[in-house]
Amino acid sequence: xxxxxxxxxxxxxxxxxxxxxxxxxxxxxxxxxxxxxxxxxxxxxxxxxxxxxxxxxxxxxxxxxxxxxxxxxxxxxxxxxxxxxxxxxxxxxxxxxxxxxxxxxxxxxxxxxxxxxxxxxxxxxxxxxxxxxxxxxxxxxxxxxxxxxxxxxxxxxxxxxxxxxxxxxxxxxxxxxxxxxxxx
Length: 184
Fold this sequence. Notes:
globular; alpha/beta; Rossmann fold; 5 strands; 5-stranded mixed sheet
């Protein structure tokens, strides 16, 4: 399967410059972020992708949409692959608003408020990654899956840190990474 970290968001741009939380809730992609999403769509259109799973954060949905369009596939949205809740950008958008903003996407299996109310401990992110790993490993066609996700979740699943718009392949049957190093 392939993980694609969402394109650069407004939060990423400002946080990279200042190393301080700019207070942007559920940020959108920047122009560069949209360009990264389009490049990913072009590259992934050449692959045998049969399923696109994405986080419900706006930046992930904006990244996944051109990819799904290029592949002719629907989006499967799940909070399981969301970012670790640690900054203002990790406050999500309620499902009722997502349904209004993304009318062609199914959010029916997601609670109205799908992100946690407080900072998420590292062990909880690792547990979500383990759950998702088991779910994917149980599928016969996991190798044909694209997951549009976030730095923290991809790190918890693969042990690798990826940049905005970067892709990484992962085998859910290979087990958890031995060592996950979180930046502090």
